[in-house]
Amino acid sequence: MSLKRRQFLLFLGTAAGTSAFGAWGSTQQGSVAAIGSTASSTAAGVTTASARSTGISTGTVAAANATPFQPLKGPMPYEALKVSGEQQPTAFAQYAVQDDIVLPDGFTYDVIASWGDAVGDSRFGYNNDYLSFVPTGPDEGYLTINFEYVSSETWAQTYPSVIGKMLPVDDVIEALKATEGKLDAFALPAANPLKAQIKEVAKEALLDQGMGVISVRRQADGQWVRVVAATDRRISGISGLEDGRYLKSTGPATAIFTKTNVTGYSDGLGAQVIGTFGNCAGGTTPWGTALSAEENFQDQVPEAVYSDGSAFSPSKKVFDSGLDGQGNVLGLAGNKYGWIVEVDPSNPNDYGTKHTWLGRYRHEAVGVRAEAGKQLAFYSGCDRRGGHLYKFISTGTVSDPSANSNSGLLADGMLYAAKFNPDGTGEWIALTLTTPVNPILPSSVVGGMVTLPQRPEGGFSKVEDDAVANALKANFATLGDLYEGSDLEKQGAILIDAHFAATAAGATTTARPEDTDVAKDGTLFIAFTSGTPGGDGGPDKAIFVGPNGEAPYESGWVMKLIETDNEPAALTFSWSMFATGGEPATGGLGFANPDNLEFDNQGNLWVVTDMSTSTHNNAVTKRTNDAGEPLNDKDLLGLYGNNSLWQITVSGQDAGEAKMFAYGPMESELTGPYFTADGSTLFLAAQHPGERNGIRSAMATETREFQMKTTTGQAFMQKREVPVGSNWPAKSADAPPKPSVVAIRRIDGGSIS
């Protein structure tokens, strides 16, 4: 179902919006040195960036001066462009994609930092994702950045020119050919030369993941730049390995980390944790800390654990020629990854705390609800096909939402997983010892498979037969029966194995829940990116259907969830889909695969998309396969072009419209949108430019054909010029693509929205 004007007005009324966090105190920066650059490029009717002065004085940006931006013309027609169906075949017959962050006329961006830039005693990492801005004054603050993963081929190709040294990647890949492209480096003798080479590559790849804290300032001309500060630091995938900068942990899983007699593998470090990686989305607390979500940790260490919560051996996730299995050679313990990390950007000695009451799974985002006199609620999704939506409720209550002591509330509480009912109601299921085992049945899931705890072997199994799932229920009455140890240790093991425990308890398998964001009125918004099943499972057949009843449906949804009586600690809720991805001709809003969400200070919802790089601008010369059958929406993703950023307007004459505000460089994903409180700046990251084709050589471009549809359903052909690879952000011939963070602003200095 697409989002219609009347649905928006009925839903939103005057309540929707976003929490606007004020300054959380000031920090003495000492001597500062400006670091930064401003890019400039102009396309037909589009200013992507400019070096022109805004003419504003620091601290004088006025949101009231804003005028609505003109929506971008992407490659696909959509309603907000106000081009009639009859005119669209001509207006969209030709389209030229640009290798840039393309913005509406009147907007510009400043490049704040790029991969390889100096940060403290380290460097700015790769594939920047979530951004957290904590102001320290009217025009300055801390910017905390997540670094998710390295795009192996492009990272290796550009590493020498960006970092200025060589890595033995080619030698390692050549050596791995003798072992079918993979090797258990953990088991190799310490003196083995290949082990040393793999360790060098793995350490550099993990160094480019994790988190970073930098300081930024807006100059009198409106441009944002970096400033050198004592708080600048990196928290990487190898923090603590050699420098003693271990991360800490709280909550029941710590009892597993410190246990000496375990079934599986222990790194011998107790509560100390080496690093953080897979850092995707996140959140910012009202008390001024940044939250980082460890997502695809299973690419680097084993996900499976034994029934006592201990890790499988590092040998179960080997190093491969795609540079996955980075934790193997270093002997990292898999049960210490997949958590939420909290960092205080103002404390230069804080290298992060993993709060285990929030659960271990493929975390994506943290929606924070902190209200005086009420229990704290944190929301997060598990970004896998068939992943669950979770809520943590603290035992204690919030006194002052801005108090640093609120971090202590994360050390005691309960984790819940959502069960969605087809009638629009739902409940939160506690993941604790006494919760009954009542598994999700494979027959209820798109794709017909669920993953459940495997006993007595430990780990998990892929179940395609309802009888096997029902046998688990017959043999184990409660979640506590599935795990071993004292009550505290069992609770820790359940949290470590949260995804599989939640499936065993009957939590709904969903459609890749990515971002979770809480509106000003307490309503939760969830981006469900893709309804297609895969190797991890699939979504519930009754809940996740396309605008015309399709299941599977690839293009995704945005859901709203309202707690009963609007209470953060409520255990029941109502839900509905109010925005659906897909082509406008078939009921979608014109984008596909919604990911990060953000509200501006006017209450408008902003959405970035996360189409897989392998689909970008893939030619669609016809809409049927060789058998004459219609292509499904997954096969049509090439129509949408590059990943993009959209605003869904929620007030005024355009309420209910989705408007493209930006699209990203070639083969990239726009991530981590974060507005300043005055609405004048949007911090945004562009990760993995050139991920598919690497460096764009000699400004190479291809012409491809696409069978498009008008908003009214008429088919027409489009010729599209598509750059091959990327040179962003330098945009000069043969320049290496570098993941980077930018600050977007109006050239005239007004509010963005």
UniProtKB/TrEMBL annotation:
Residues 1-22 form the signal peptide. Keywords: Signal. This is Phosphatase.
